[in-house]
Design a protein that fits this description.
single chain; mainly alpha; Glycerol uptake facilitator protein; globular
Length: 235
């Protein structure tokens, strides 16, 4: 099991370092589209790098959805989530250390680490309710794609699952960056928020609750809805 935990740590570390790193270090140069692809490509790379070891969840909401869908035990979900959160915190710490190496200095509290948020002064200045709705819906769709693309029925194609999932994350970011910075991943939100503090920590609850809610809905649809999941596909 430790191999899976190490894989999830590395995967989440990579997602935060390069996804949030793209926003913090190169955001002005690459814009929303570039940041979106940074998150998606990081996920694709890890899907093929560690997918064979742990399944490459690198997201507590995805692991929770897998548990609700009956694909993993609760204790395995806990172990995955701990490894993912640790990886996200480590990734954010390394990113913070790098950006503080600027000759002119870098104020993490003022300039951030790609943390999520909403309201006045945050990106598109969308409301809390808009951010909440987006995060629930986006996570629902994201986990729906993940469960479908990795299903063991004949309609799933494991060789391209990582590509489908990564591109889904890209389009979610293209639409959602201005709304909430895009979480759909409690660990990804936790890492930067811990070091930025202040408003990022005050608003963190939404980026934990909403992804878990969206993942639960997707998992229940997969497990119990007619014509969804393995049982239906094999009829």
């Amino acid at each position: 099991m430790i191999k899976k935990e190490i894989a999830e740590f590395i995967g989440t570390f990579t997602l935060v370092l390069f996804g949030c790193g793209a926003a913090v270090i190169a955001g002005e140069q690459i814009g929303v589209l570039g940041i979106s692809f940074a998150f998606g490509l990081a996920l694709i790379a890890m899907a093929y790098g560690i997918g064979g070891v742990s399944g490459c969840h690198i997201n507590p909401a995805v692991s929770f959805g897998a548990w609700v869908a009956g694909r993993m035990s609760f204790i395995d979900f806990i172990r995955y989530a701990v490894a993912q959160c640790a990886g996200a915190i480590a990734g954010a710490f390394v990113l913070m250390t790098i950006v503080k190496g600027q000759m002119a200095g870098y104020d993490v509290a003022a300039s951030g680490l790609g943390q999520n948020g909403w309201g006045a002064g945050y990106l598109g200045e969308y409301t809390r309710d808009a951010a909440l709705l987006f995060e629930v819906v986006a996570t629902f769709l994201f986990v729906t794609v993940i469960l479908g693309a990795t299903d063991d029925a004949d309609i799933a194609h494991p060789a391209i699952a990582g590509l489908a999932i990564g591109l889904t994350l890209v389009v979610i970011h293209i639409v959602g960056i201005q709304i909430s910075g895009v979480s759909v991943n409690p660990a990804r939100s936790l890492g930067p928020a811990l070091f930025v503090g202040g408003q990022a920590m005050e608003q963190l609850w939404l980026f934990i609750a909403a992804p878990f809610a969206g993942a639960t809905l997707a998992a229940l649809r997969y497990r119990f809805c007619p014509c969804s999941g393995t049982a239906c596909c094999k009829k």
